[in-house]
TrEMBL record:
PANTHER family associated with the record: ADENINE DEAMINASE
UniProt source species: Arthrobacter livingstonensis
InterPro entries referenced in this protein's UniProt entry, alphabetically: A_deaminase_dom (IPR001365), ADE (IPR028892), Ado/ade_deaminase (IPR006330), Metal_Hydrolase (IPR032466)
Listed name of the protein: Adenine deaminase
Site (Important for catalytic activity): H217
UniProt function note: Catalyzes the hydrolytic deamination of adenine to hypoxanthine. Plays an important role in the purine salvage pathway and in nitrogen catabolism.
Swiss-Prot/TrEMBL cofactor(s): Zn(2+)
GO biological process, any: adenine catabolic process
Manner of cofactor binding, per the entry note: Binds 1 zinc ion per subunit.
């Protein structure tokens, strides 16, 4: 990667389980004595052509079988931080899927301790400040999500907020009103996936019924001009993931991605890698693809990176530090 792309950014939409690279899947399977349905790199890699979100999710959940011990979760997290560092990421808000691990009989404490132990040293080791977000699976019940949230709170898990992910179609935001009320009462930040495969009405309801502070994806918002006006007026952060959208066929091609239209409409968008081990790259590859496809100039890159920093849940002092770094990046390019 050229230094041109070491744009200092915040990554706000990242599933840590989606950073599990095929090589690490095989390594952890061997370490834990797990027989994989696709036991070679070539076999495994051949599974990565997705037709839609559910097709990806089936592989994403199946591959998690190799995550057994705290060390597995810590190794995965450190591997992400190393690649993120090489991509210019300076702050990362990382989602994990507690229910996906509990459902396989892995105690919550194993996942939480493994991930958070790696995050605890990320600033010193990688220069990346971090925060952890517990994402709930929208194809499971609200009761399940509430019970897991209570368990996370009771154990003092170092989470900054909650998110909502997995299969969007058929699982509307209205299913999770009590979950988001509970999170708000507990002082947690709130984000949710919406408008990835689901309709613009999901984005409206995610804002109005769940009271989220950011929308993950939100690309289908462009189908509703009233919604675009609302998002622009309130400067609601939208964590867009271009390579993810292409690989999950949410858009036909990168050229057809609505990012240019979203920027032209004054939306508060930032760039993210979502599940980089599955979708063809980390932050750097996402930016590189956008520059190649749309010819984004230095001003556009600065705006996108600035949006990510301003939309983060980092402390104000850290945001100021990162915005100063971004200004220095810009100043070196006049
Ligand atoms: O891109 C995604 N969309 C919804 N759920 C997910 N869980 C992991 N990645 C995703
Ligand atoms: Zn996502």
């Amino acid at each position: 990667m050229t230094t041109e792309f070491l744009l200092p950014t915040a990554e706000l939409h990242l599933h840590i389980e989606g950073t599990l690279e095929p090589e690490l899947i095989l390594e952890l399977a061997a370490r834990n004595g797990i027989a994989l349905p696709h036991p070679t790199l070539a076999d495994l890699r051949a599974q990565y052509e997705f037709t839609d979100l559910q097709h990806f999710l089936d592989l994403y959940y199946a591959n998690m079988a190799v995550l057994v011990t705290e060390a597995d979760f810590a190794d995965m997290t450190r591997a992400y931080l190393l690649r993120a560092q090489a991509s210019g990421v300076r702050h990362a808000e990382i989602m994990f899927d507690p229910q996906a691990h509990l459902g396989r009989g892995i105690p919550l404490s194993t996942a939480v301790r493994g991930i958070s132990s790696a995050l605890a040293s990320s600033q010193d080791e990688f220069g990346i400040s971090t925060a952890l977000i517990a994402a709930f699976l929208r194809d499971q019940s609200e009761e399940s999500a509430l019970a897991v949230l209570e368990e996370l709170l009771a154990m003092g898990a170092p989470i900054i907020g909650i998110g909502l992910d997995s299969a969007e179609v058929g699982n509307p935001p209205s299913k999770f009103i009590r979950l988001f009320e509970r999170a708000r009462a507990a002082g947690l930040r709130r984000v949710a996936h919406a408008g990835e495969e689901g309709p613009p009405s999901h984005v409206w309801d995610t804002l109005d019924l769940l009271g989220v502070e950011r929308i993950d994806h939100g690309i289908r918002s462009v189908e509703d001009s009233m919604l675009v006006r609302r998002l622009a007026a309130d400067q609601v952060p939208l964590t867009v993931c271009p390579l993810s959208n292409v690989r999950l066929r949410a858009v036909d091609t990168l050229a057809a991605h609505p990012l240019p239209q979203m920027l032209a409409s004054g939306l508060n968008v930032c760039i993210n890698s979502d599940d980089p081990a599955y979708f063809g790259g980390y932050m750097g590859e996402n930016f590189q693809s956008l520059v190649a496809e749309f010819g984004l100039d230095v001003d556009a890159l600065e705006l996108l990176a600035g949006n990510s920093i301003r939309s983060s849940f980092a402390p104000e002092a850290r945001k100021a530090q990162l915005l100063a770094e971004l200004a220095a990046w810009r100043a070196a390019r006049v």
